[in-house]
Amino acid sequence: MESWLFFVSNPNLDVDFYQGIRVLCMHVVTKYVSLHSRGEIDAVNITESVESAVSETELKDGIVTVFVPGSTGALTTIEYESGLLRDFPAMLEKLVPKHFDYAHGSNGHSHVRASIIGPSITIPFKDGRLTLGTWQQLVFLELDTRPRSRDLVLQIIGE
Question: pTM of the full predicted structure?
Fold first, then answer.
């Protein structure tokens, strides 16, 4: 039987319309992960923190979206190992050089880099576990020119 997900905002809808259709109830839980970065190009492995937050909800299957408020932080996945942790900043320097005549000023490159990588990432979870690959970790990238404290927002949706 095919299932549909309905988000009903009108309590006056005719219930007879939904007979024979399985309506799934999804739960939405918001959590936060706090971290402190060392400044520009700091890569922080947040995989365990996010997986722990998902596990605490006791939801079995769903998705988690991680979002960094601010315009100089970014989220991605990468194999969190020393070679790639050196390669990634080198690649960013070639794509978006630090020393360029940015109209924004001293951290213009930070904003451009963050906008290219993106402020959020969504990961499915199954049986309460993130469905990441064997060598894939979830990473927060600090792209600002100074150390920062960040509160990442986790929106966990599932059943």
Answer: 0.85
